[in-house]
Amino acid sequence: MKITVIRSAVIEAPIDRVWAVLRDFNSHNRWHPAVARSRMENDLDGDVVGGVRRLRLADGGELREQLLRHSDREHTYTYCILDSPLPLFDYVATVRLKPVTDGNQTFWDWRSQFSAPDDRADEMENLVGRQVYEAGFTGLRMFLAGQTAHPRTPGPDAATAVAVAVGGEHLPSKAVVVAAAGGPEVMSLCDVTVSAPGPRQVRIRQTAIAVNYLDLKHRRGIDPGLDLPGTPGMEGVGEIIDVGQQVNGLFSGDRVAYMSRTPGAYADIRCIDADACIPLPDGVSDIDASTLLKGVTAALLLSRVFRAAPGATILIQTVSGGVGHLLSQWAKSMDLTVIGTVSTTEKAKFSRDCGCDYPIVVADDTPLAAEVMRITNGRGVDYWIHSSGVHGFDTAVACLALCGHCAVIGDRDGQSIRLDVNVLKRRSLTLSVPVCFDYFDDRPYLQRLAHRLFAKIQSRMIVPAIEVFPLSQATEAHIRIESRQTMGAVVLTPGG
Ligand SMILES: NC(=O)c1ccc[n+]([C@@H]2O[C@H](COP(=O)([O-])OP(=O)(O)OC[C@H]3O[C@@H](n4cnc5c(N)ncnc54)[C@H](OP(=O)(O)O)[C@@H]3O)[C@@H](O)[C@H]2O)c1
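Above: the input entities. Below: the structure tokens describing the complete assembly.
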């Protein structure tokens, strides 16, 4: 039975950059997660028609493929399988690139025809489409993001990297430990050892660790996400020391950022799921990259949660905060009118610099509703980003314009909002309670938003504002956040 498989993807890089990698028929081991090793027979170059490559797959299988046609002018090549452990017969595939109109993206078409036994046809079609082509698209995206930071001239292939991890020694490190739920004083810096990464993990020497509001709730014991005694922290940036078994596409020396549901980031060195890591491009510093969670949350709120049209009005509670100041800049870049709440005139000034058109200093709710209605000429706001919990929720609903949307992203007062949906029905309002981790279990989606964030940081359309504390002063950092003195994001740096 003849099977045709066609897959395509848009890669966020110009065609010359994508082709520079793909044109080498011997490059799969550097970017494809399923390929551990690649070598050309007879030492031929990877663009010689007739050349045969031998691939060792990550699962141990081997196959031989031959290059049949190769054109730099048309950005295409065609190849066939000579020997395979799988029943893929008469397999001929073509890779073809085309520039996307704006020139910064590339359209990649990957297609093949082959036959397979009837009882395995569906399995083979699925394997080629998903595990070869779609996994390849993701692998190349990751590679391109990481490659700019660390050109991988024939470096260690996956198999070598695995060998580094096997039997890797325990490394001394320091970690902040929350002994028992309580105030900032329950945190202390302890000596620990970090063992070699397990399967599908990498071990990272961290350079920047984000402090998120959730960490404070973990420390206080309000949110059950941290088992005590334990080390808080949901995200960090650093350099990979070594990788565990079954890790593809990541190498020691790679600079990566990660965010994870599993706490433990407040440390010099830690192990983390490879799946959580995103390679960092040039032009994004480690400190800036540690705003990953806050930045992709902003992107999520402005795209998938609710898409406000240009010219619409958004109100951001705590607009001078970590999420708030990024969200404000991002919203402004989408031509939204930004209203924000802050607690001091100093924060109002800071927020204006972050694109907030109307920062409102609020002491209580009563003047807030009146001020919002004054700014919007009585219409109300299209989109309200709510993080204060029950406190101020009625004001949020009252201030929404017809068909407006409220996204509840936090509950700072720790109380549950009770809602009569008829209140929403009266003006066709909608409400969401998004939790970023639930969306970002979809890793390709997270990668897309991360790349959008990094591109905005590279072009300085978004400039993160960051207060930096040594890891040893995590207590001071928490005190400063809890006393509402910080503006922008707060980051801890190990080694101090
Ligand atoms: N749902 C999600 O997926 C998601 C993801 C990320 C963050 N979040 C939520 O978004 C909110 C912002 O997160 P963030 O990490 O960027 O924090 P943040 O906004 O930087 O938090 C610090 C700021 O919160 C304000 N605040 C108000 N009441 C406070 C209190 N009782 N104690 C301390 N600070 C208080 C202060 O600003 P003012 O003085 O101006 O009030 C303070 O400067 C949090 O509620 C967080 O849980 C949700």
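Note for the figure: DSSP finds 15 helices and 22 strands in the chain.
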